[in-house]
Amino acid sequence: MGLIISLVRSTWAVSYAAFSLTSFIFTGFAVFGERTPNRATNVVLSLTSNQYSEFPLIMFFLDLLFQSWLSITGTFHVSPLARFFSYVNVITAAGIVYLFKRSLDCQDVVENFLGEISKENKTKFKLPGVTSPKFWKQFMNPFHWPRNFTLNENIPYWTSKEQMYAMHTDGWESVLEMAVDVYRPDNIEGGHDRPVLMYIHGGGWTSGSKSLLGPLVTEMIAQNWVVVAVNHRLKTKDGYPTQLIDCKRALRWIKEEVQTFGGDPYNVVVAGDSSGGQLAAMLALTPNDPAYQHGFEKIDTSVQGCLVQSATLDLVDANDYSAANGRERFIREVALRPGFPESAENVAFLKEHSPLYKVEGTNVPFLVVQGDLDICPVETARDFVKEFRKKSAASINYLEIPGGHHCFEMFSSPRTWYTTIATAEWLNYNFNQTDRSASAGEKKIGRVHELVEWWHEDN
User: Fold this and answer.
1) Tell me, what's the pLDDT at 448?
2) Residue 406 phi/psi, 5° resolution?
């Protein structure tokens, strides 16, 4: 019997050691970021880092639970291995506390941002912090999905000619990818002319789905925006810019049909994350460009605003901010172009599809949201904002999120809640004129936050 107990304790000790070592390593990546020469490794590390940076207290309590069990069973008393890793976990715990503190730093960043975008109103914003009961109420129930809405799924945006070409070239499944989902608040009907948020998913241009939506969509539906989530074809024989052309086709559908769902075709804001951010920016920066709208050249493909999050804004990466060679992957796996990625023709192609090089003369307001630990280098986002301000008269706002990893905004966490409030307020302030002009006695949709029900503006 004693031998069995000893073996069980040894198993628990080894399991605890493996858990502790894993936590130590990934907490390190969450604190310092991950930029290796391998893109696939970066993606995996980024996803794991998000688990620790967005949910640090959960990871802390898991470790505490494990340690408590080892103490109760006497494993710590008999196992030097378990005792050693309990000391390692002290370092990990310090990292986890730091991660939680970094997520709370977003409160000040977002409050300052909200003050900047509403300078003319001289409004001071105060968001709930760690000392507020509202914060912990939200923390205990972080997962939300929009209520009181109607979802119209898989609406095709192709014409019959486009359908036949896609089916002939890439098969029937690719045709099914050419579709949108429309989220319509139940109190909105056709003809209400509500602002429209067109959202393009990420996934490196070759994966992802319109169903992968973060808390921002919940927020905007609650604020009576019509949200159109867009799919584009992922892996086609023609390669990129098929994805961009599909997004233009989806915008064509919005312009022609969104009024039926209560949206305003003349008030469309395009948004996206990661590769979807690049597509959103390119769509905003190439209005009515016949190169990307063959067969519907006369359709107006302009938008009123653009929001990009964790976006790829410079495919050339001339400064080599990224440790991974994104140029090679984009040319060979996404665009399917021949030749060396560094050839003059391919570099010119990369520039042509890098938002950084397309900003001159644009009149579309932008909001760029980037985490300072993103695998899409934050330096590129800073360069984009600097170039935009130099070459465009349009407004641009920049929100740099401390401790934010790639696509952190897809996780429901304090960092995401603060960021979502900032982006929602930017959208409402610039494009929700109906609510901005509401009388003092009317309900202001832009001040009711479904996601957090956190805050109010003291007038």
Assistant:
1) 46
2) -65, 125
**How far is it, in rounded angstroms, from Cα 156 to Cα 225?**
21
Summarize pLDDT for 391-425 with one digit per residue, the tens.
999 999 999 999 999 999 999 899 999 999 999 99
Phi, psi values for residue 227, rounded to 5°: -110, 130
Q: How far is CA 364 from the centre of its chain?
A: 20
Phi, psi of 183 (to 5 degrees): -100, 110
- Residue with the bigger pLDDT between 293 and 147: it is 293
Rounded CA separation 269/368 (Å): 13
Residue 241, preceding peptide bond in cis (omega within 30° of 0): yes
Q: By percentage, how much of the chain surpasses pLDDT 70?
A: 91
* Cα(304)–Cα(405) distance, integer angstroms: 28
The strand pair at 179-185 and 226-230 is best described as antiparallel
Classified as helix, coil or strand, 217 is: helix
Long-range contacts of 444-450 (CB under 8 A, 24+ apart): 445/223, 445/224, 446/223, 448/222, 448/223, 449/219, 449/222, 449/421, 449/424, 450/144, 450/146, 450/147, 450/218, 450/219, 450/221, 450/222, 450/223
Known active-site residue 160: no
Tell me which of 190 and 231 has the higher pLDDT: 231
Asked whether 225 and 151 are in contact (CB, 8 A), the reply is: no
The mean pLDDT of the chain is 90
Which CATH code, of 3.10.20.340, 3.40.50.1370, 3.40.50.1820, 3.90.660.10, is assigned to 133-314+354-447? Answer: 3.40.50.1820
Which residue of the set 274, 275, 322, 412 is catalytic? 274
Cα separation, 280 vs 277, whole angstroms: 5
Helix (H) or strand (E) holding 271: strand 263-273
- What single-letter DSSP state applies at residue 404? -
DSSP string, 234-252: -S-SS-TTHHHHHHHHHHH
The pLDDT of residue 458 is 40
On the question of pLDDT at 438 being above 60, the answer is: no
